[in-house]
Amino acid sequence: MTATRGFGIDIGGSGIKGALVDLEQGQLIGDRHRIETPQPSTPDAVADVVAEIVRAAEWDGPVGVTLPAVVKRGTAHTAANIDHKWIGTDAETLFAKRLGKSVEEVTMLNDADAAGLAEIRFGDAAARTGVTALLTFGTGIGSALFHDGKLVPNTEFGHLEVDGHDAEKRAAASVKDNEGLSYPQWAKRVHRYLSVLENLIWPDLFIVGGGVSKKAEKWVPLLDIRTPVAVASLQNNAGIVGAAAAAAEGAGH
């Protein structure tokens, strides 16, 4: 029987969010629970917060957890905006122990991959065929790549070198805020980044997400590129929804 509900946790550099998810609608059930990310954001400190969120929800099924990291077979291999002690940590085992679950009941995945899974399943149907790249603009630039709806995990397109710079250091949403750029000024940088990326992977569709997608009308129309650009429909809940869906399907195993 296909699960109709799941639980997802989205770990970010500033906040850790969790919620129960309706896996038929791709929507949160009730409110999401958010706790500030502990500083330093060590594996043990973060695991304590995750356990608190799951406990508060009184959820006893499988749990999906996102990390801002490359995740292979449950182990983190990088750490973006979280403590570097995550690198080399078997996160799946850590969370399983802290939550009192078997390793099979915990699914770890990259945060952008989770957001992408949610958009592919519950967003624009056009994303399910051909090559689709989801890009989340936030503190950095996260990416998720799909071919005919199947995930190619752990792409790191935010770190493409563009004009001698790491792309996310020029075109992340945080850079817009930190440098006081207007939307048109920032859109020029996003345009340059996307034009480089589209010439490398020749996608059929870009989906743009992250908090800045709420103001999509101020910058997406300024992107004059070959590839169609769609705005993410689940916005900041995509990571939670994708994590819950991955856990329900045992996608990490």
Give a written overview of the molecule.
The protein is an alpha/beta fold and 253 residues long. The chain has two domains: 5-113 and 239-249, ATPase, nucleotide binding domain (Nucleotidyltransferase, domain 5, 2-Layer Sandwich); 125-232, Nucleotidyltransferase, domain 5. It is 30% helix and 27% strand. The chain is built from seven helices and 14 strands. The strands form four sheets. Strands 3-2-1-4-7 form a five-stranded mixed beta sheet. A five-stranded mixed beta sheet has the order 10-9-8-13-14, covered by helices on one side. A two-stranded antiparallel sheet has the order 5-6. α1 packs across α2 (91-99) and α3 (111-122) crosses α7. The model has no long low-confidence stretch (mean pLDDT 95).
* CATH C-level category of the largest domain: Alpha Beta
- Low-confidence residue ranges: none
Would you identify the CATH H-level superfamily of the largest domain? ATPase, nucleotide binding domain
Distance between the termini: 18 Å
Return the domain count: 2
Cα radius of gyration in angstroms: 17 Å
Give the integer mean of the pLDDT values: 95
Percent helix range = 25-40%
Order of helices and strands: EEEHEEEHEHEEEEEHHHEEH
Annotation field: number of helices: 7
The side-by-side strand order for the widest beta sheet comes to: 3-2-1-4-7
Q: Which structural class do you get from the secondary structure elements?
A: alpha/beta
Q: What is the overall silhouette?
A: globular
Main sheet: strands, sense, barrel? 5 strands, mixed
Range of strand content: 25-35%
Number of E-state strands? 14
CATH architecture of the largest domain: 2-Layer Sandwich
* CATH topology group of the largest domain: Nucleotidyltransferase, domain 5
